[in-house]
Amino acid sequence: MNDLLIKNTTAFFKDAFGSSPEKVVLSPGRINIIGEHVDYNDGFVLSAAIDKIICFAFSENHTNTSKIIAIDLDDSFEIDLNDEVKLNDTVWTNYLRGVIHQLKTNKFPLEGFNCVFSSNIPVGSGLSSSAALECGFLFGIKALFSLNIKSIDIALMSQKAEHWVGINCGIMDQFSSVMGLENKVIKIDCKTLDYEYHNANFSEYSLILFDSNVKHSLFLSAYNTRREECDEGIAIIKNYFPEINSFRDCDERHILNLKNRMSANVFKRCHYVVKEIKRVTLACEALDQGNIRRLGQLMFDTHKGLSAEYEVSCAELDYLVDIVKAENTVVGARLMGGGFGGCTINLVKKGEEEALKTKLSKLYFDKFGIELKNYDVKIGNGTSIYNSN
Q1: For 43-77, what is each residue's pLDDT tens digit?
Q2: Among candidates 149, 168, 150, which has minimal Cα distance to 160?
Q3: Which segments of the chain are extended strands (E)?
Q4: How far is C-alpha 182 from the chain's CA centre?
Q5: Percent of the chain with pLDDT over 90
Q6: How big is the CA angle at 91 (ends 157 and 210), to the nearest 5 degrees?
Q7: 389/14 Cα distance (integer angstroms)
Q8: Looking at the domain that runs over 2-201+380-385, which CATH code has it been given?
Q9: Which CATH superfamily hosts domain 205-377?
Q10: What mean pLDDT, rounded, does the chain reach?
């Protein structure tokens, strides 16, 4: 699948600009195995790059202007690199403008280039196509002009580019897209950016994403409310336990002791966060021990917390998890991403994938009248230069 994408992208570049590209960059989407809604609460996540990518083709053009073509959107834009970078009404261009803004802010020399890109990352599915876009674009410019930018700084600058666009994301998406390794998951400390790799040997199980094909409008307002509730909760905890600096310093005992000092919602949010931070560590231990059933149970536990305590699930996602929980061929599942729609991530017995897809698609359509999409994913490498040799 990626080979055809690379072939088509490079061929398009040659047709558009009359020569083969000097650099070809592959930038992946990401999944998060466990550690949901804790990246902005000083927690840990267990994420990975995947084998679905954006392919970029680049060449210098020896002018002060860059032309960028989005093949899939049948759209393009030009930008004069001497001009001030400003937001534009064409939203997809702003992620790339944000990268150029970061390069100029950090005083990197910029010269004109041509770029085309195309993707097989499903847009809107929670696989972080925006992070792949930012990281791949920045990586390609770095490679084309031999700029001295470390991998971690590609992730951080790409995150700042997204902030410039107006989306206050955490670091997980960009970090995973840049730092991923094939068959490895990354435990990321979202407070210090320390990280460690763990083998992603899921044994006789495959990773499948089921896309609910819904996105409820509650997402943004609810996300902001959850952040405020967590901030309120940690302030109460610090007041009674001065030795605590963040949720990672807490255990359940601290939260339970303060239940009567918090509103019902704030208590539920804090209780979930403290348990989820712990689950990430337990998930790493399960992977290291090859105990995939244990990992799967932790995923089910996370979904229960996201649904009942953090309250970011929805009827469609709960239904998908409830159905597979009764299947002997599935050892773990949960909603993945912000919530209120998007995908569930599932650990499914190898050889049983197609039967499950068929069964679940029919049940889901009968229940909601909505087509259920599915994506097979494998854990792949982070953003890199493609060499055809």
Answers
A1: 999 999 999 999 999 999 999 999 999 999 999 99
A2: 168
A3: 23-34, 44-60, 65-70, 75-80, 113-119, 184-189, 195-199, 205-215, 330-336, 341-349, 373-377, 384-385
A4: 16
A5: 90
A6: 85
A7: 19
A8: 3.30.230.10
A9: GHMP kinase, C-terminal domain (3.30.70.890)
A10: 95
What is the tens place of the pLDDT at every residue in 99-120?
999 999 999 999 999 999 999 9
CA angle 77, 173, 276 (to 5 degrees): 155
Distances, alpha carbon 100 to alpha carbons 23, 75, 327, in Å? 18, 19, 48
Mean pLDDT across 28-37: 96
- Give me the residue spans of the domains in the chain: 2-201+380-385, 205-377
The verdict on whether 173 is a catalytic residue reads yes
117: burial class by Cβ within 10 Å (0-12, 13-18, 19+)? buried
- Contact present, 25 and 177 (Cβ < 8 Å): no
Q: Which two tokens stand for residue 383?
A: 């953003």
pTM as predicted: 0.92
Q: Which one is catalytic: 153, 173, 288, 376?
A: 173
pLDDT at 219: 64
Can you give the C-alpha Rg of the chain in angstroms? 22
Whether residue 214 contacts residue 316, with contact meaning beta carbons closer than 8 Å, is answered with yes
